[in-house]
Amino acid sequence: MRGPHSPAECGGQLRLVGQDVSEILDFIAAKLKITRTTRLTRSCRDCESIVQPPAPSRPIPKGLAGPGLLAHILVAKFDDHLPLYRQGEIFARHGVTVPRSTLIDWCGGAIRTLRSLAELLKSQVMAVSRLHADDTTIPMLDPKNGKKATSEARIWAYVRDDRPFAGVDPPAVACFFTPDRKGDHPQRHLAQFAGILQADAYKGFLKLYAPDPITGQRRVREAACWAHWRRDFHDVWKLTKSPIAQEALERIGSLYMIERQINGHPLGERLAVRQTKSKPLAAAFKAWLEQQLPKISGKSDLARAIRYGLSRWQSFTLFLEEPTVAIDNNAAERAIRPLTIGRRNWLFAGSQAGGENLADILSLIESAKFVGHNPEAYLADVLARINDHKINRLNELLPWNWQPPAKSERQNA
């Protein structure tokens, strides 16, 4: 049986009775473009002098790469972990052949352009009175050991993060490169630092915590990381299913539950909650650990985990008295995590200079991400402006001070 005639068949007037809307997500591929600048040359009919406007500055002097392209290459390598040879293959699909050696030169040139800004960022981060610190390995080519041999270098990250207590300083990270892990490196980085340092139990930090031989005052106080300690108990529990390790994890978890409740709250509220809720739990945990220690083998991993915390109890409980101190050092671990992913792809630093370039660009990219910026948009704008920017106003280009250009400015650029 035929249904009702459609309006097209009967010729009746149509009226709107509803609508169906559907959407699909599509992708518009990136494009490479050439920007041509024409500068007219004029001569004076009277004095015959030649006049021509100055050429616009470039991110890399005499370089062919524009700021947007340089920013894309830097973020693709150091934040998206895409090696340069793969980026070269992508450019080839767009019809442009860029040798890997050229990409290397562009990266180095762009980071040199940004170096003064990176140094300013680091100096401001290191000037605060509370820092998170962590380090990680990075292989570096070592010609002394053969053409293909590498040595174990380090990247150090020092993080300023006031977000847990609603502080006024924006989060940022300062990264430094060293060819090894000798203790004099962090001691040099922190030579002017005075305050609270939250870090792991690395022995290179110990001299920083030592009291002044004359005044007896400590320039740097240690705040230990409960996440590191918790990891030790977790490793024991995973291997042995020890009920002592399990209960230790549960007790530490109770402290973390309280921290989640006060995260981002003002200092006074954080201190009050910690004093009334966390402090009794921590004291009970310490007493319980002291009771368990004689019951287990002194050479076991569980005993070592217990002694690790008890021997540094004052550092572990500093957060109960200082509301600006976090319960752990995860802020530094999060800041340095992109490097641990990236080194699997681009494998190593080619030299000392390459490692220092890596530290500088990581400082800028990660700090931009900390304050919510798109790092590629940030770097593109800074690279376009920095060579013409007054040196005494460089502070305006720091990630936490930078403002994205207005839409009209981008269209006129």
Describe the structure.
There is one protein chain. The chain is built from 16 helices and seven strands. The chain is of the alpha/beta class and 413 residues long. A five-stranded mixed beta sheet has the order 5-4-3-6-7. The protein has a two-stranded antiparallel ribbon with strand order 1-2. The termini are far apart. The model is unreliable at 1-5 (pLDDT under 50).
Task: Record keyword descriptors for this entry.
about 425 residues, alpha/beta, 5-stranded mixed sheet, two-stranded antiparallel ribbon, 16 helices, 7 strands, about 45% helix, disordered N terminus
**How large is the radius of gyration?**
29 Å
Return the structural class: alpha/beta
Q: Please report which band the strand proportion falls in: under 5%, 5-15%, 15-25%, 25-35%, 35-45% or over 45%.
A: 5-15%
The span between the termini is: 66 Å
Mean pLDDT: 89
Instruction: Find the count of extended strands (DSSP E, 2+ residues).
Output: 7
How many individual helices?
16
Quick one: overall form? globular
> Which stretches of 5+ consecutive residues score pLDDT under 50?
1-5
Task: Please render the helix and strand layout as text.
Layout: H1 7-10, E1 42-43, E2 50-51, H2 67-78, H3 84-93, H4 100-125, E3 130-141, E4 150-160, E5 172-178, H5 184-189, E6 195-198, H6 206-209, E7 220-223, H7 226-240, H8 243-262, H9 267-292, H10 301-310, H11 313-316, H12 318-321, H13 330-346, H14 352-370, H15 375-385, H16 407-412
Parallel strand pairs: 3-6, 6-7
Antiparallel strand pairs: 1-2, 3-4, 4-5
Helix pairs in contact: 2-4, 2-15, 4-14, 7-8, 7-10, 8-9, 14-15
